[in-house]
Design brief:
Elements: H1 4-15, H2 20-27, H3 31-39, H4 60-68, H5 74-83, H6 90-106, E1 119-132, E2 135-146, E3 152-157, H7 162-176, E4 182-185, E5 192-195, E6 201-203, H8 205-214, E7 217-220, H9 230-244, H10 252-267, H11 279-283, E8 301-306, E9 312-315, E10 318-321, E11 330-335, E12 340-345, E13 348-354, E14 362-363, H12 385-388, H13 397-406
Parallel strand pairs: 1-4, 4-7, 10-14
Antiparallel strand pairs: 1-2, 2-3, 5-6, 8-11, 9-10, 11-12, 12-13
Helix pairs in contact: 1-6, 5-6
Length: 407
């Protein structure tokens, strides 16, 4: 008979993509029993060997999600669900967690060799901090590894936002000369908003559009199986030990230039320890989908700004000029991947500036500024300047000469 805890475990294994035969092997259950659980719509109740309703039932979906993140400590989970309203005993929780913990221990790591052009793996790694235009910023490294050739691409950034994430993908595609069929990711917000307990994945729609544009399928690393991204994790370890360790960093641009040289001269030209071949040699066999036949996906930052009466907008701590005829209007601001700031009124581009990354700077074009000061508006009750300074009578100079002679 299948107990409630085991029912949830079988359901979760199936959502991970395991076959019925594999689930049967891991649980010791007959394939017909496994298939019956998979087809069921909810935990069975009643007297025929099925578990009775439990105080833990409303929290099991949450617990499965937390265990998929590697949290198996019963006391920690107990504190979390207590705050959510759980009133049962910790012994019930321990009974529920136990088969999941044992299942994770029984997983045998098998090397998965992908065919050419099939898959790449992507991950972020933290590399401390860096001085970036006078500010101390966290330093991250984007890493993509092709599954067949083991070719590596890496790029250091000071942001992990969606626009940066997509730009790093584009740079990797151009570096490799194409796009694989699918890319494997962790469960990060730039890729997935959340996954419902029933297995439904809610993808980030912007990233979904990006994937559709380049024609690849995003895949998620299954819970409890972090080793499925072993190729990219091995690449990160290699970057730390072979490239980054003991490196003197002067700037982000310099770091990425040196990383590119290392990729071309060392990482992708060595004989790989697993394949026993040079990654660049195997890269020619990948047969990736070319990307040079279409424009790069637009990864610009888009926002709106109000033009001041002195012909400027404020953007990320700096001021940029706008033609004075657009004073007090709203303009669309587009920060491009090339480091340009473009300003639009409707579809008309009215200004373009090179982005200044230091704070407190003023970037202006003389032609944008008004040729004379903007007159200030007179407040109600304030006297006119004509009243303060009455017009003086104009007289011929001969009158003043006659007055001087008389004196």
């Amino acid at each position: 008979m299948v107990k409630g805890e085991e029912w949830f475990m079988i359901k979760d294994m199936y959502r991970q993509g395991l076959s019925i035969a594999e689930i049967s092997r891991r649980t010791g259950r007959d394939r017909k029993t496994v298939r019956k659980v998979i087809r069921s719509t909810g935990p069975p109740l009643g007297r025929k060997g099925w578990s009775r309703p439990s105080k833990l039932d409303p929290f099991k979906s949450y617990l499965i999600t937390r265990m998929s993140q590697g949290v198996f400590n019963a006391e920690k989970l107990m504190r979390e669900i207590n705050r959510m309203g759980y009133e049962g005993r910790i012994s019930i929780l321990r009974q529920f967690v136990h088969p999941f913990r044992e299942s994770r221990k029984e997983v045998v790591t098998q090397r998965f060799e992908t065919p050419p052009g099939k898959q790449s793996q992507v991950d972020w790694a933290h590399f401390g901090a860096i001085d970036y235009y006078g500010q101390r910023r966290k330093l991250s490294c984007f890493v993509m590894t092709l599954g067949y050739s083991r070719a590596i691409y890496c790029e250091f950034t000071v942001s992990q936002d969606l626009e940066t994430f997509e730009r790093c993908h584009i740079h990797a595609f151009h570096y490799f000369g194409g796009v694989p069929e699918e890319i494997l990711y962790d469960r990060i917000k730039t890729v997935i908003f959340y996954q419902h307990p029933d297995g439904t994945i809610h993808w980030n729609p912007t990233f979904g559009d990006f994937a559709h544009y380049y024609g690849f399928t995003p895949r998620l690393c299954p819970p409890y199986r972090a080793q499925t991204k072993g190729k990219v994790e091995a690449s990160i370890k290699y970057i730390r030990g072979n490239f980054f360790q003991g490196l003197s960093i002067s700037s982000l641009d310099d770091l990425n230039q040196r990383a590119l040289e290392w990729l071309n001269e060392t990482a992708n030209t060595r004989v790989h320890g697993t394949t026993k071949e040079v990654p660049f040699h195997r890269l020619a066999e990948e047969k990736l989908t070319p990307v040079d036949t279409r424009p790069d996906y637009d990864t610009s930052y888009i926002s709106w700004r109000q033009v001041t009466k002195d012909s400027f907008i404020s953007y990320k701590g700096n001021r940029y000029s706008v033609p004075s005829r657009h004073n007090l209007r709203r303009v669309l601001v587009k920060e491009t991947a090339e480091g340009m700031l473009e300003l639009y009124v409707g579809r008309l581009k009215v200004a373009s500036h090179r982005i200044e990354y230091r704070r407190g700077m003023v970037v202006s074009v003389p032609e944008h500024l008004p040729s004379h000061p903007v007159p200030k508006k007179r407040l109600p009750g304030q006297p006119r300047w004509q009243d303060l300074f009455p017009e003086v009578e104009t007289r011929p100079l001969q009158i003043y000469e006659e007055v001087a002679l008389r004196g």
